[in-house]
């Protein structure tokens, strides 16, 4: 499927980079004017011409400058993606992969770009098991075997090639400057390096790249520079995608693998190809929901859960009431059970996508829900959709002056991925191989159960929960959203959609409100602080185990009003999050 280029407006001449290449610091950022909404506790950023919401103020700033200078949403999104690879190395990346959803403002069909990592050609189904068939702890997480072939550079470049108006060089200039000249470290940057110290400092290249010469972490207010990463990005400017997947950078990756028993080879890198896919599509109370298709499970199960919940008057039940949370949790359990059985890379396995997203199948699942009592997870088995066939990640959302929208989620899996920095290249490798089923039926780090559909195979894309999502009403983009959070990505994104459609919240309230999560196994509702003790007691009386969790997700969202006004909601769960417009 190909989106018509007419859907993305172009400006003649080159995009000015004058405002993009200046040295950027957190103190230089101008905050967008906030809406004055009387009676609201949370206020979104408000603009008319363009809006960017990312998890880091500097990335938001450079992407917004692209929009101000006539670039479109894809131009700004790609610029933000490369900037986050510099300013937020724990999740922003060039050593990982992700998914981008693009919805033209003219109402033509949305398009999904799949730049998920792939298993190396030498990967085997039992590579994370010992001779007795037991899963070896941490082999798929903190070793060179954990890394899949990175897709970010190829994916962002493909998006720009298909729909952009600026060059790859222009998109990279702000990131290169941030890497070369450095940026002022915020508290979250320091805290992350301190928390991950034991895991990161075992690798000399990571210690050298992300810590001071004396081994201490960079402190808030200090300037952090990444000269090796700047050179890696310059090679992409000089040689395009080949500047990463061939030549010196590729050789540095392959050498890193060879030194430490990893599997990625020069051929693996050279052969990597992102894919253009058709998004998953559903309809919820008259709104069209577009989200990522497999190898992401996100779109499939967001639509599936919404289909189940559409049969209940959620708005009347009230936001985060015991009744609403009960129904949401029961629907989530049913969807995650199906995820364990059916989801995988559709280039390798048949996924009953049409059945899973069928409203008739949702009716059958809904009939299994007791409105007054929790169903034990042990009694929930994956359904039969076939008859109905006919934690650390980052997300950013962009809408431009022509109404074009981009929703992008990308990741290196864990915070700081594998913890392994490619010597001489200055970037971290992902540990996405842990998202495969190391052994069918054995949970991964996020507690998610996987089946044979997600077993390790050479060249295969591992299953993901990333859920970049765009909602339309009468053919117009009205909500752009997505989140990090591992297994909680699906439920985080789901709840923002419901907060807007069912509960009529503004986008900042939708983003900031307390969340809940249930993933079938373990059999518990996880809640954020802010759910009342009375509600918890009512849930427990229905048979639910309730566990209070720290913050779940960090969703970055944009709403478009009926008159075209743009409302940005940055998630306060990440202190560096920022929504800005003009």
From TrEMBL:
Domain of life: Bacteria
This protein's pathway: Sulfur metabolism; glutathione metabolism
MF annotations from Gene Ontology: glutathione hydrolase activity; leukotriene C4 gamma-glutamyl transferase activity
PTM field: Cleaved by autocatalysis into a large and a small subunit.
Catalytic activity: an S-substituted glutathione + H2O = an S-substituted L-cysteinylglycine + L-glutamate; glutathione + H2O = L-cysteinylglycine + L-glutamate; an N-terminal (5-L-glutamyl)-[peptide] + an alpha-amino acid = 5-L-glutamyl amino acid + an N-terminal L-alpha-aminoacyl-[peptide]
Keywords linked to the UniProt accession: Acyltransferase, Glutathione biosynthesis, Hydrolase, Signal, Transferase, Zymogen
Assigned protein family: Belongs to the gamma-glutamyltransferase family.
Quaternary structure, from the entry: This enzyme consists of two polypeptide chains, which are synthesized in precursor form from a single polypeptide.
Protein name: Glutathione hydrolase proenzyme
